[in-house]
Design brief:
The protein is of the alpha/beta class. It is built from 7 helices and 6 strands. The protein has a 6-stranded mixed sheet, with helices on both faces. α3 links the parallel β3 and β4. α2 runs parallel beside α3 and α3 crosses α4.
Length: 191
């Protein structure tokens, strides 16, 4: 912007108008005063590493919902194990995994590292598990929600964790067609 000749005030005004895209490291108000970091648009090894690194800088109790990283092909097992190795029990009070490879590889590796881990079969189950944990907490809680779309849909866990249902407008994949795909995927009437 400076190279294009804009003044500092113009640059700052422009930056203040930038809005995060849904599902891209958005902070949302969660139940019981928690903070949700909604990073559910998609997931890849580098993105999960960056999100965990950020989560570790947050204050208070930290929870990570780590959904499957899709479309990794023959590297999927290795990459999911590597994410489990990054789960540090000195930072994380709870790790919830969601999806086949996350439940199989990330969960077992994080448990071996000493983390408390719960495997979830659906985003709805993951959301309820985390909500119960948050509601029992006596401290401030930050919840990172990370996952891909097909078979994971971690944004549905975020929806359960929101303090205000109206904030679901800030989540990814909330159109009628996406909600129908999720109904079909999980046979859950409350979608």
């Amino acid at each position: 912007a400076e190279k294009l000749g804009l003044e500092q005030e113009q640059i700052l005004a422009g930056l203040s108008n930038i809005k995060s895209q849904p599902g891209r490291m958005n902070k949302l108000d969660g139940v019981n005063g928690s903070v949700i970091i909604d990073d559910t648009y998609n997931s890849s090894p580098e993105a999960v590493k960056a999100a965990l690194k950020y989560l570790y800088t947050c204050e208070g109790v930290k929870i990570a919902l780590l959904g499957n990283m899709n479309e990794l092909g023959s590297t999927s097992q290795k990459e999911h194990i590597e994410i489990g190795e990054l789960c540090d029990p000195s930072f994380l009070s709870l790790v919830v995994t969601l999806g086949l490879d996350a439940n199989r590889y990330t969960a077992s590796t994080a448990q071996q590292k000493g983390c408390k881990v719960i495997k979830a079969d659906t985003p709805y189950e993951a959301g309820e598990i985390i909500k119960e944990f948050v509601n029992k907490s006596q401290s401030s809680v930050t919840v990172l929600c990370k996952g891909s779309q097909n078979g994971v849909y971690a944004e549905e866990a975020v929806k359960i964790l929101l303090n205000n249902d109206k904030d679901s407008q800030y989540l990814v994949r909330q159109s009628d067609s996406w909600l129908q795909k999720k109904r079909n995927a999980f046979q859950k009437a409350s979608v």
